[in-house]
Amino acid sequence: MSRHHMTADGPVPFTAQEETEFDARQSAYDDAYPMFKWKEAMQASDSALLSRTMEDILDGMPNKLSVAKITLDRLQAKKDLRATKP
Fold first, then answer.
1. Which of 7, 18, 78, 86 lies 20 to 30 A from 51 at CA?
2. Cα–Cα distance between 25 and 63 in angstroms, integer?
3. How far is CA 32 from CA 11, 36, 82, in A?
4. Per-residue confidence at 67, pLDDT binned at 50, 70, 90?
């Protein structure tokens, strides 16, 4: 399918150079999209699961016996999400 610009006179097809530039931009976007979605999920988990600060504090604790199970579950969920980084 040929891409085109819309003008007052109707559609004007892209030149070969414009097609190449568009394909390059699209490819760059497609390559960056998984990382964008992962970062978006990580940011959402900071408020929904456990903040990054709390995650660091818990990671630094040598003994987590006094930490509630739900907090440890959230910490593990964050670690699992972090492991999916593209």
1. 86
2. 49
3. 30, 6, 17
4. very high
